[in-house]
Amino acid sequence: MFLKLGSETSRKAARFAHDLAQQTQARITLLFVLEPPRVLNLGFLDSELIAGPQRTPEEMDAVRRMLDEVAADLPKAQVEKVVEIGRPADTIVGMADKLGADHIVVGARGLNPGGKWLLGSVSDRVVQHAGRPVTVVH
């Protein structure tokens, strides 16, 4: 079982995945996806601008603490914690493929880097491209 973390709905999804994993004795991979900075071509003199947040050690520590907090209720032998940088939906599907996950659990909505709620675009894309069962938790 594979789970993407971040927003409040993804924490609800974590609780759901935890309950499901206990019933089925499944392993859980907790995934947090950080969006990469974007490189924008300015179009003159081959200039580029890097837009978006640069990842600080403090931010990475906060992500790891959050993963530890979510994993605290799970048996250590049953959970793996992963932090990846990439486009969220593509990274979720790609990691599920790479790990051979049999099920993906995602929250219905997440936060974009600007802090605005996305209307399920990541979960919708995961459902459309996963090639395996996906549970979307509201």
Strand tally, please?
7
CATH topology: Rossmann fold
Q: In angstroms, what separates the terminal alpha carbons?
A: 18 Å
Mean pLDDT: 80
The CATH architecture assignment turns out to be 3-Layer(aba) Sandwich
- Shape call: globular
Widest sheet: strand ordering: 5-2-1-6-7
What does this structure look like?
With 138 residues, the protein is of the alpha/beta class. Residues 113-119 have low confidence and may be disordered. The strands form two sheets. The protein has a five-stranded parallel beta sheet, sandwiched between helices. A two-stranded antiparallel ribbon has the order 3-4. It is built from four helices and seven strands. It has one domain (2-137): Rossmann fold, CATH 3.40.50.620. Belongs to the universal stress protein A family.
Question: Which tags fit this structure?
Answer:
138 residues; alpha/beta; 38% helix; single chain; two-stranded antiparallel ribbon; Rossmann fold; five-stranded parallel β-sheet
Concise description?
Pfam families: Usp (PF00582). This protein is an alpha/beta fold. The protein contains four helices and seven strands.
Outline the secondary-structure elements.
Blueprint (H helix, E strand, L loop, with lengths): L1 E4 L2 H17 L3 E7 L3 E4 L6 E4 L5 H15 L7 E7 L2 H12 L4 E4 L13 H9 L4 E4 L1
Parallel strand pairs: 1-2, 1-6, 2-5, 6-7
Antiparallel strand pairs: 3-4
Helix pairs in contact: 3-4
